[in-house]
């Protein structure tokens, strides 16, 4: 039997601080047993709406909303893992999560837990996975300095500059990676500011590194043909292989493949199948006439039931090893990642003579400058091919001159 679970926010008007603010408290009831948790959020007593259990101030209202979501997610998490829950257990867990950390790594742990719960809610772990990686870098750097943690109050510009240098020299990280690590560091700093642990950002003048030129990894036509000609014996690997090929012929990112439904498939008057779908990342509509091989793959899966996606794909986190294994099995020199398929589509489409405007429409790009990167890749390849041709001609001419 499921527990009865209620949350109520309230204030104690008899306990008002000198500045006119009072603490917002939270009463949690499970099976009729109430327990009070402090939210560490304050408001002006006269602005509190006792009937609605809320406040008109948008910033404070959003904080209360986030606090409520945290309690609800924690409740579901404990109930799912242990099968039973009590007010005391929930409070002890919430107090641990909600305590305001005054040190960097501790704040990172709290934020990671929030992102973990959020990833479950939205069914996407990409942000959580990235943040966990950046937190690991920060922890390793702090440990390398002989510290277990560092207080927010002790952080100076030198700390961030030294952290950037550590990533560059010890781990040989590129500018884009360093910037992502610095973004995570600043994120924790601004959380501390929001919670009034800090008054201002001590890293405000620390500059981000110059952005690396975009490098879109892609496979060539022969590599794609090799993947097409080598079906996988395992059912799961074969699904991933077909999805990779389909993406290489349509330009759909994994998240768009994962959320592709029969309603997104249409047919022209001439009987040609196409996909019309808004991209998850940009919300820009993509229109993609299907390649005959893409049509063949499509017909192997769900094209009629709109309550289920076309391809029964797992979340992207679960197929990293699979896609890499396919690359190894087919003998590709570089590690294969799923997003190579989208970049391969852009490069191959431009190489085949399609206009940049058409490719941009098919790929759902919000800005055509994004598509022009694929044209630059193609131009670079043409230039390299021409250099090879000139080199061969020069070698042949030298041989002819030697004969004469």
Automatic annotation (TrEMBL):
GO terms for molecular function: DNA binding. Signal peptide: none annotated. The keyword DNA-binding applies. Keywords: DNA recombination, DNA-binding. CDD domains: INTN1_C_like (cd01185). One of its GO terms (biological process) is DNA integration. InterPro entries: Arm-DNA-bind_5, DNA_brk_join_enz, Integrase-like_cat_sf, Integrase_catalytic, Integrase_recombinase_N, SAM-like_dom, Tyrosine_recombinase_XerCD. Pfam families: Arm-DNA-bind_5, Phage_int_SAM_5, Phage_integrase. Residues 214-387 form the Tyr recombinase domain. Transmembrane segments: none annotated. The keyword Metal-binding does not apply. It comes from the Bacteria. Belongs to the 'phage' integrase family. This is Tyr recombinase domain-containing protein. The lineage of its organism: Bacteria, Pseudomonadati, Bacteroidota, Bacteroidia, Bacteroidales.
């Amino acid at each position: 039997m499921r527990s009865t679970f209620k949350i109520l926010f309230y204030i104690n008007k008899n306990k008002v601080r000198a500045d006119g603010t009072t603490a917002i408290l939270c009463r949690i009831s499970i099976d009729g047993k109430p327990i009070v948790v402090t939210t560490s959020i304050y408001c002006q007593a006269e602005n509190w709406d006792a009937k609605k259990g809320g406040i008109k101030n948008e910033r404070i209202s959003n904080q209360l909303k986030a606090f409520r979501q945290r309690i609800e997610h924690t409740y579901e998490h404990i109930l799912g893992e242990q099968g039973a829950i009590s007010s005391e257990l929930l409070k002890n867990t919430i107090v641990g999560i909600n305590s305001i950390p005054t040190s960097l790594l501790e704040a990172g742990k709290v934020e990671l837990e929030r992102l973990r719960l959020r990833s479950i809610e939205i069914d996407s772990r990409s942000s959580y996975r990235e943040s966990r990686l950046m937190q690991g870098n920060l922890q390793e750097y702090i440990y390398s300095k002989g510290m277990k943690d560092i207080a927010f109050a002790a952080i100076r510009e030198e700390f961030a500059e030294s952290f950037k240098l550590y990533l560059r020299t010890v781990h040989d990280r590129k500018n884009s990676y360093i910037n992502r690590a610095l973004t995570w560091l600043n994120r924790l700093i601004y959380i501390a500011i929001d919670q009034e642990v800090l008054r201002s950002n001590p890293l405000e003048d620390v500059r981000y590194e110059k952005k690396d030129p975009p490098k879109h990894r892609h496979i060539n036509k022969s590599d794609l043909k090799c993947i097409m000609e080598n079906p996988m014996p395992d059912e799961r690997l074969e699904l991933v292989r077909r999805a990779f090929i389909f993406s290489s012929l349509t330009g759909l990112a994994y998240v768009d493949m994962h959320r592709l439904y029969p309603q997104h498939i249409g047919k022209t008057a001439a009987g040609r199948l196409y996909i019309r779908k808004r991209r998850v990342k940009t919300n820009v509509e993509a229109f993609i006439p299907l390649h005959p091989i893409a049509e063949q793959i499509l017909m192997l899966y769900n094209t009629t039931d709109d309550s289920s996606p076309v391809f029964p794909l797992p979340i992207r986190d679960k197929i990293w090893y699979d896609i890499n294994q396919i690359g190894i099995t087919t003998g590709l020199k570089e590690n294969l990642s799923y997003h190579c398929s989208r970049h391969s589509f852009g490069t191959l489409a431009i190489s085949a003579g399609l206009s940049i405007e058409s490719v941009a429409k098919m790929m759902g790009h919000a800005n055509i400058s994004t598509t022009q990167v694929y044209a630059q890749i193609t131009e670079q390849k043409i230039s390299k091919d021409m250099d090879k041709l000139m080199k061969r001609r020069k070698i042949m001419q030298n041989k002819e001159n030697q004969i004469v």
